């Protein structure tokens, strides 16, 4: 089903029902681009930490537009032993409401646009009929403008109750409405404390604030609403376009349907980040997404997508099919084997809340409900060198050490993974008198970065005002021994075999000079 | 006629012929946005100097994409006493050629996209079938990659003749081709020194460099090639996509057809800047476009466009019609009156090389073939104040002085134009003891800015390397008395009546406090 601004309001109850009856949901997004950095390789160093990857995506990927949001609901029919599937394609576009409403700018990356165009993606549908939306802050601003204009047209000299700091959130709820909103909040909260599945809300102006700010969400709820964040924020603008004061359709229960549902995606980190960034609020500065506790499963990228129709809803559908196959595959290990593994099964639990990290050698996922994996990297060297060096120079330098893996950081530095950890000390000794390059162990490198970070005060920053929990930054070198009780810190994973796409670029950009060879037999 | 990458090469000779036979050309561009600044008002202060306006557009408008280029050729048929019109719509998109070719990022502004969408603009045609192009620098880079890969596949250890600095331009012409290219340059230059209208060129790899770098253009030629800059750069990529070594269709004479033709546009400054920026090279840092000597006529914006099909070719067509009407209107002042004024008429000359400056109170155009107008602004005050102030605070402050015009600069400063110059001294005296605001005369303001600029070394910058002439920066306060012989400096123009669109925004953003009144009767 295609959902545009033409049929959005009429489709909402269908969408909500589909979500409510579903056993699990699959989502997928189509974006106007991936990276505004120099190239994708800058985004995907094979030895990124989950935090570094998150920060790179936040820095280089959030100015693109999520313009198609795919949702596929999967409901298991016990009698028929098959899944009933409903697919929705939401076309999204931040159509400005008027001259003073937010005029969003977004970046397009030619390669992404060209790829989608070659797949027959309908840009006209996005730009002509896309569903408009607001994030929290934009909504508050638009609401203020309305109120100011209304108070002016009422002949009142003072803007009624808008305080100068009203875009800070709850402060903008008018005094005279607070009691009413308190009652709404109470009703909404009853969804979590009672067995009620719906709540009747009277039409009101303040309920959005109540929903987005004042409700004390259970830990696992806000996060479950990923799909609804998108849909709700779209509804808000449509309401603003409609009538003031705003009213919710009181027969809908906008919060309940996704609660506790499994949401699956492929390469889902970007989808999650874009959904929050575009429809909800600014992403936090450091990777403290742990408190989101989203029920999500990440698994490696679906690679045949390029040969098929690249549409968000279709991709979500395929993703769901993959998930079903993988879940049922787990059932083959049971005694006796089970043909159908439901999405609520405990067999799925180890994969829940793990977001796949593309192209990281030894950390397969970002864990959003616990500490991240801390693989040993004591076979890794941090090498700095003149900007003329190419990958081949590094291969030559380490030619005596057998197979190595090079992960470029920038023009003058790279990680070099040796195949044997005991070669590290030899390499360190050899490099002591080198003039053109410098080698550090990975531990030394991490320590150096940590010192820089602390001197910049990063570890003390807090985003409490934005509603994000204060990050508990833990240095990679201390997590394993820390008080958290997790023992992920010192597992060693076998590096994946991996081809670095950026090698070509670097080869082309570097002159063929300055080669050095490090011979282990020198020692 | 619609020109996409599907029919581009086949259409070229038709386009060239149309240009060649034309008496004058009209052009127009459609862009993915106008301003990436906070709002349009930041781009259009009513008291901008031409240089300031140019710099603002360069800073805030060049990251958008020109994705439709309209060309309309007008050829006067003496026998029929009417113009023959040919319209072309070029769809443009920087489709990347491969993974290592430039992957252009461009910004879209929702309001612009929404406007074009509402006019039925076909984005799918742009993104699926747009003509690819390269600017000079991108072309050099792509060529290098080709050569490097070719030399690698030839088994050669060294990249043949690519020097490390080869993206600096002519340096990348291989030694063994220089003699050949010299002959090509000579042939091309003969176009300007002889009566030849075409030149036969053998297929060659280096001719692009010859055309873009080595030819000694007569002053008025490069500039006449605005339309062809666009078309040639598009052809180049199509050639790169086709075969290596590249070949020009030797029956074409790519430089001659626009020579000496009048090119007209509406609000043409942005069109010209985008065309040069996107298809040719980086715009210079300061307004030293004078050396371009483009034969262009600017006249005020075509305001009924919003009610009609917004397509670049159509807009160019309407622009041409307006020009014909205006030219013929000039003919009614002759004795005896003449019904048809040709585009080469001397009556048109005073309007040639003038680019309309939108929303500047007293400088109607940017003069690209001479010094700009320097209207007296001795009735203008530069006022700084707390950021809470609104337009109404300024009206109240100057309420004793009758009608004023307020031109916002930023949150804490604005120009205030008084209706009487002799009020300036009174206002200055009054403000002497003011604490919350400060007033300077316009002359004092200009002098202050000039000092800041000189301390930053702006006046000594040179862009010789890019092929731009070194700017001769002249301070506004000295031009009139300078050695140039121009006497534009001290004309006083009656300000246009003008509504500032940004007033609303400022009103909404400011609290209603801190009002002061300046009474002239106090003195």
TrEMBL record, chains A, B:
CDD domains assigned: RRM_PARN (cd12428)
Polar residues composition-biased segments: 152-169
Task: List this protein's GO terms for biological process.
Answer: nuclear-transcribed mRNA poly(A) tail shortening; priRNA 3'-end processing; siRNA 3'-end processing
Q: Which residues form the Poly(A)-specific ribonuclease RNA-binding domain?
A: 370-447
Reaction(s) catalysed by this chain, per the record, are: Exonucleolytic cleavage of poly(A) to 5'-AMP
Give the compositionally biased regions (Basic and acidic residues).
142-151
- Tell me where it resides: Cytoplasm; Nucleus
- Record's Gene Ontology CC terms? cytoplasm; nucleus
> Which E.C. number(s) belong to this protein?
3.1.13.4
Region (Disordered), start-end ranges: 142-175
Q: Which UniProt keywords apply?
A: Cytoplasm, Exonuclease, Hydrolase, Metal-binding, Nuclease, Nucleus, RNA-binding
UniProt GO molecular function = metal ion binding; poly(A)-specific ribonuclease activity; RNA binding
**UniProt similarity note:** Belongs to the CAF1 family.
Protein name in the entry: Poly(A)-specific ribonuclease PARN
Source species of the chain: Oncorhynchus kisutch
Q: Which gene encodes it?
A: PARN
């Amino acid at each position: 089903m295609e959902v545009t601004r033409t049929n959005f309001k009429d489709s909402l109850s269908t969408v909500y029902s589909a979500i409510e009856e579903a056993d699990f949901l699959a989502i997928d997004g189509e974006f106007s681009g991936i990276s505004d950095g120099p190239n994708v390789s800058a985004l995907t160093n094979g030895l990124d930490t989950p935090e570094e990857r998150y920060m790179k995506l936040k820095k280089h990927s959030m100015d693109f537009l999520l313009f198609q949001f795919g949702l596929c609901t999967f409901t298991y029919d016990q009698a028929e032993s098959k899944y009933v599937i409903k697919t929705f394609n939401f076309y999204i576009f931040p159509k400005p409401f008027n001259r003073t409403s937010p005029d969003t700018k977004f970046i397009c990356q030619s390669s992404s646009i060209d790829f989608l165009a070659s797949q027959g993606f309908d840009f006209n549908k996005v730009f002509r009929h896309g569903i408009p939306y607001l994030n929290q802050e934009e909504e508050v601003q638009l609401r203020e403008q309305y109120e100011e204009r209304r108070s002016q047209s009422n002949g009142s000299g003072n803007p009624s109750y808008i305080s100068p700091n009203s875009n800070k959130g709850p402060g903008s709820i008018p005094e005279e409405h607070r009691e009413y909103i308190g009652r709404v909040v109470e009703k909404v909260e009853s969804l979590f404390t009672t067995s009620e599945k719906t709540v009747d809300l009277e039409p009101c102006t303040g309920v959005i604030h109540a929903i987005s700010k004042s409700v004390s969400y259970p830990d696992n709820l806000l996060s479950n609403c990923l799909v609804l964040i998108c849909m709700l924020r779209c509804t808000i603008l449509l309401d603003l376009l409609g009538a003031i004061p705003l009213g919710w359709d009181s027969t809908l229960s906008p919060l309940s349907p996704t609660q506790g549902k499994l949401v699956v995606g492929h390469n889902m980190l970007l989808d999650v980040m874009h959904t929050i960034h575009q429809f909800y609020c600014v992403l936090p500065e450091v990777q403290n997404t742990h408190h989101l506790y989203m029920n999500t499963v990440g698994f490696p990228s679906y690679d045949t997508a390029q040969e098929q129709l690249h549409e968000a809803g279709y991709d979500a559908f395929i993703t769901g099919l993959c998930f079903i196959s993988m879940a049922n595959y787990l059932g083959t290990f049971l005694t006796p084997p089970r043909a159908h593994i439901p999405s609520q099964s405990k067999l799925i639990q180890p994969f829940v809340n793990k977001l796949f990290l593309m192209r990281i050698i030894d950390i397969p996922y970002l864990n959003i409900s616990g500490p991240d994996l801390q693989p040993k990297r004591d076979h890794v060297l941090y090498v700095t060198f003149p900007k003329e060096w190419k990958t081949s120079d590094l291969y030559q330098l380490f030619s005596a050490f057998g197979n190595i893996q090079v992960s470029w950081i920038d023009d003058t530095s790279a990680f070099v993974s040796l195949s044997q950890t005991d070669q590290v000390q030899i390499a360190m000794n050899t490099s002591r008198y080198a003039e053109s390059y410098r080698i550090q162990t990975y531990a030394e490198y991490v320590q150096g970065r940590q010192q820089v970070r602390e001197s910049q005060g990063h570890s003390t920053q807090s985003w409490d005002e934005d509603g994000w929990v204060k990050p508990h930054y833990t240095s990679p070198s201390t997590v394993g021994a820390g008080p958290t009780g997790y023992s992920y810190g010192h597992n060693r994973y076998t590096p994946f075999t991996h081809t670095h796409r950026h090698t070509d670029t670097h080869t082309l950009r570097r002159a063929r000079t300055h080669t050095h060879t490090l011979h282990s037999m020198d020692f």
